[in-house]
Design brief:
This protein is α+β, with helices and mostly antiparallel strands and 132 residues long. The protein is 28% helix and 25% strand. It is built from 3 helices and 5 strands, in the order αβαββββα. Strands 1-5-4-3-2 form a 5-stranded antiparallel β-sheet. β2 and β3 form a beta hairpin.
Amino acid sequence: MKLRMLGLVCVSAALVGCAGNSSGRSIDPTHLASINPSQQINKGPLTPNSLLDVAPAALSMRLGPPAFKRTEPDAEVWQYAGGNCALFVYFYKATNGALASTYVDARKTLGGPTDTSACLADVVSRIEAPIS
């Protein structure tokens, strides 16, 4: 189990490193063992931080199904399309077996980092998701 946690910490660190100048948001990977993901996202305006530590079903209730989903043994990556960006939400399996969102990032459609908050607003406006 310790080896699994070390692997998750390394993957999370690599993701943060890949983000470069991006304004991605993440949960400290050392807390993954104690995460019990929320089954709903708080009402009100969505922010990148509000998308952290939630179950996939909670994200789906607010943003709908992702445009793309990649599934791996202990992780999932969900992608939502904005007009000029893509929003990525990374879910990792906590010790209790539940998937929890631990990292949110945004990339320009043509490549490179972009502001995560602005991309989330773009995604929300495109899918006409309720913001409160």
